[in-house]
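Re: [ENG-882] Designed sequences occasionally contain unexpected residues at chain ends

Forwarding the minimal case from QA. Structure tokens:
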């Protein structure tokens, strides 16, 4: 059956702003204006969903940086959950695809993998979120043989090395095979999902980045058309991610169900961890400016956060 046709004729097409991915693949980045849509394609027995976005520029000090990727990923995750219910009407076994997205995209010819370890699709560059529904819920061993385990460098990647040179954490090793190129433990995006420590020397590299790091994408010539569209976040963002406002929100009961959940997603709503990263960003911003708020958080906040706050106060007293 033509699942894409069925999806596009269903109530979900307008509800989730769905479009088929086809003609767009030939559009130049500078001309691409299909933001806000969720593009769907069917390949290798899977329903692929792509949600392109324009990255946020890094806001001024005093505000935590949260890349637009995280807003987009929540949208595409919710869309996937709805489409999964729809797809099960035709494919009762349908479930979330558990294989390699890179291998899938590469083998379908929709896009390529790049030196910076990200997936590239011409009109979106590397700035898109992706979800995949495996229509037959195969185990990993049952994925089509055409899917290579480890995609090689592609013709699209210019192997110019700008991404590795730009990485503030030295996490992209030049000249190494793809599987060893990204040193995850060093990557800022990885660090953001671990507990912050006031004594971690890499805190200073992270600046005010709370969620996301786009350095290796913004310098990539293959992303030039998207990078040129980069915008300041809206005014509400500055209020919401003001470091003092966010620190107070973290220690306030009900944080997990607050407006921040729409950005972090339920799985990442860990107030203790987020607070640690906010405190690290405050250090980079000048801890003195935030000391009164940090002390207020200590006084009024959940005692479970005491050690995190005291750890930073002890060093920066
Ligand atoms: S910056 Fe150069 S080497 Fe890195 S992904 Fe882009 S084209 Fe490839
Ligand atoms: S996301 Fe940031 S830290 Fe990670 S590899 Fe890219 S530039 Fe380096």
């Amino acid at each position: 059956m033509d699942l894409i046709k069925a999806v596009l004729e269903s109530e979900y097409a307008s509800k989730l702003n769905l479009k088929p991915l086809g003609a767009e693949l030939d559009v130049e980045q500078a001309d691409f204006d299909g933001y806000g849509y969720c593009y769907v394609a069917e390949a290798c027995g899977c329903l692929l969903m792509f949600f392109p976005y324009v990255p946020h520029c890094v806001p001024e000090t005093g505000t935590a940086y949260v890349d637009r990727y995280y807003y987009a990923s929540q949208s595409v995750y919710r869309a996937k959950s709805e489409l999964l219910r729809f797809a099960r009407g035709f494919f009762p076994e349908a479930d979330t695809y558990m294989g390699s997205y890179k291998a899938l995209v590469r083998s379908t010819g929709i896009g390529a993998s790049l030196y910076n370890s990200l997936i590239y699709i011409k009109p979106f560059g590397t700035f898109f979120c992706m979800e995949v529904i495996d229509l037959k819920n195969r185990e990993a061993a049952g994925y089509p043989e055409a899917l290579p385990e480890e995609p090689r460098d592609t013709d699209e990647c210019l192997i110019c090395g700008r991404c590795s040179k730009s990485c503030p954490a030295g996490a992209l090793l030049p000249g190494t095979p793809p599987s060893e190129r990204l040193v995850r433990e060093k990557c800022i995006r990885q660090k953001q999902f671990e507990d912050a420590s006031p004594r971690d020397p890499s805190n200073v590299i992270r600046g005010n980045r709370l969620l996301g790091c786009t350095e290796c994408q913004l310098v990539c010539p293959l992303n030039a058309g998207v990078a040129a569209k980069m915008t300041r976040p809206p005014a509400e963002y500055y209020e919401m991610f003001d470091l003092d406002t966010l620190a107070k929100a973290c220690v306030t009961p009900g944080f997990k169900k607050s407006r921040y959940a729409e950005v972090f997603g339920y799985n990442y709503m860990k107030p203790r961890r987020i607070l640690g990263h906010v405190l690290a960003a405050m250090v980079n911003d000048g801890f003195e400016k935030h000391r009164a708020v940090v002390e207020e958080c200590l006084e009024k906040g959940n005692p479970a956060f005491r050690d995190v706050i005291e750890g930073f106060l002890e060093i920066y007293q």
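QA comment: On inspection the terminal residues look reasonable. The first strand starts at residue 18 and ends at 20. Proposing we downgrade this to a documentation issue.
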